[in-house]
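Run folding on both entries below.
>entry_1
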Amino acid sequence: MKNLKNLLPSLAALAGLFTAYYFPDSDAHPAAVRPYFAIILLVVLAVTLVLFAVGVVIPSLKEQYERKAPFYAGVLLFLSILNILTVKTAVLPVLYFPSLDRVFGVLVEDAPFIGKCFLYSLRLQLLGWFGGAAAGILTGIAIGFNRHARYWIYPLVRVLGPIPSTAWIPLVLVSFPTVVSASAFLIGLAVWFPTSVLTSSGIASIQNSYFEAAATLGASGPYTILRVGIPAAMPHMFIGLFNGTTSSFITLVTAEMLGAKYGIGWYINWQKDMMAYANVYAGLIVMSISCYCIITLLFRVRDKLLVWQKGVIKW
């Protein structure tokens, strides 16, 4: 029975291939250049059969694959059902639900242009993210450790921070010399607020005994901040960075509407205006994968720095 469980993805891929080849396509859908969905299913079938065979030899790999096999099978079955509802039967509206062959075809055939848009968005995202993260961490540390900063700055953070970063677009457009700098500022603003609030909250929640022990051992003020306060506040700091990263992707789509010539957000909006929904879905796939990779990388850094909290927050 367990071996059959590990074969579920392969069986789901076979079922998808059967529907792809033996069910006729609807005339309502434009024909794709190549059967990309069937090609992907063939690759998945080969990979899953290899994983099944290797799992027979390596028990540890078999156990890992066994936990994920039902999910993989579910995803493949969902795509197969979607393929039936679109290109095979045209049950879903043809304009808004293109075939999977066309969606995957855009990722292959339009890859150079999508890659160019991705690099533009990545540059914009990194500029805004690092600027907002640095400003948020410094603001949070200042509020957490300095009573004057807490008196003067914290009320401004509480008043201005909850305002959506996109609401500042009219002011940003007349305040920054270029579209890139304006867009990066909006993304940085989206990262700054949750990072600063949670960093200061993390510092405020540190037990006084930590600082008392450091003072007893003769630690100076800067040493206490760098070696006691900041490390103890890092769990909260990373939660703020996670929230800010999610908000920054939302802001990215809007920021690239300010006059950008390239970018994934710009690409999605442009294709939506052109009613090319296969390209819209392809852009959404690229954006979701990018967001997933960045969040995963951030979790890797967190687990590396906060070894004692590894596994407390999972992704």
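>entry_2
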Amino acid sequence: MIMKTIAFEKIVSEVEELCRKSSLELPQDVLTALQNAEKKESNSGAKKILNQLIENAKIARERKIPICQDTGLAVVFLELGSEVKIEPENKTIVDAINEGIKNGYEKEYLRKSVVAQPVNNRKNTGTNTPAIIHTDIVAGDKIKITLMAKGGGCENKSQFKMFLPTDSAEKISDWVVKTVADAGADACPPFVIGVGLGGNFEQSCLLSKKALTRKVDSKNNDEFYAEMEKQILEKINALGVGPAGFGGDTTALAVLIETAPCHIASLPAAVNIECHAHRHASIEL
């Protein structure tokens, strides 16, 4: 087998760029969703806030400043081709990703939000590393890196629940809606809602976050779950929480469901809430 060689420093520089792009440039699909929501919004106050969010995104892009002061924990989804090797061989792709994040956050003056320990001595690492890296080994000679800058406010409102395997789609949907309602203004609506169903305890949570890497105007390939996405979104927007929590028709921009097979005795579910500053970017090498 002929292996494709990718230089360590190339990965570092590309991850630096992902840090810059994700923090300063709102993805076009998210911006379009905000613009469409503003056009349809019936509440004048909510319409004004949506306009402000759109203007904020424009200012961030043009002036090259962060969309939000919370520039997030770096969450990386890595697809590593089995025919790829990193050069030099004493370096790993994890090292490259973390170095790229360290450099990117330093060069772009992005807030560093990682503490080394969760309870004892919560001292800032000063680099916004280590990143949270989820790796899939895939066929081929490509590397795909997707970086999400995940803010603390919305992340804090995410939830997990183990349902009975006999529970209905309606019961699960109602729980998702309640989770969003409980989050309210604290998680900075309008939201993008990732839902993970199936797998086990940890996989359902991972699915809920991975769902957030989809385009906000996409739908699940399975019509059952696509309909579930649609119905949950309608129920969430009927809550009236609205942009910034001041009321209106637009509490969420999208609900995105991902699923996995699970044990016959289990039905794990997770909700990962993302705020209106839905910052992510990808590169393929």
